[in-house]
From TrEMBL:
Keywords: Elongation factor, Protein biosynthesis. This is GreA/GreB family elongation factor. SUPFAM superfamilies: FKBP-like. It comes from Brevibacillus brevis. Residues 74-143 form the Transcription elongation factor GreA/GreB C-terminal domain.
């Protein structure tokens, strides 16, 4: 990526960190209804996500650019290969305000989005969805986020 694009990408990642630092409580109250186990799951996921962002942002542009192909972030498109039937699906993991089922833009809070966030190419997992469990392998990951995100 060129310097201008990397600067914009870095700024988007910083904005995500700031968002989770400053607006997480409001965001959580708006999108998560269960304050028991659900809260623990979402809190742990967001904590791991923030730690990953901090590690990535500490890298120089070259290393950051390479890393963006090695981990699924908010704004990443990820190719999922379903082992059973060989079918492939491309999902983009986004904030809940940016979902678009017709474009396979899924919330990181959705059952599938939670499982895809922070995965890497070649990861194998049993993807649990409303239709059941399926063995999948993560294929290509590309950070493609170009939009913003809005508060609830």
């Amino acid at each position: 990526m060129n310097h201008r694009i990397m600067g914009a990408t870095r700024q988007q990642l910083i904005q995500q960190l700031v968002f989770f630092d400053e607006q997480y409580s409001l965001f959580f109250d708006h999108y998560v209804r269960d304050y028991g186990r659900e809260k623990q799951i979402v809190d742990a996921l967001v904590r791991r996500y923030r730690e990953t962002l901090e590690e990535l942002l500490a890298k120089d542009d070259g290393a950051l650019s390479q890393s963006l192909q090695n981990v699924t972030l908010l704004g990443s498109s990820v190719r999922v290969h379903f082992e059973e039937d060989g079918y492939e699906e491309l999902f983009t993991v986004v904030f809940p305000t940016e979902i678009d089922p017709d474009q396979n833009r899924i919330s990181f809070l959705s059952p599938i989005g939670r499982q895809l966030l922070l995965t890497a190419p070649r990861d194998m997992l049993v993807l649990e969805s409303p239709v059941g469990k399926q063995q999948v392998q993560i294929g290509e990951v590309r950070y493609t986020y170009t939009g913003g995100f809005s508060s609830p």
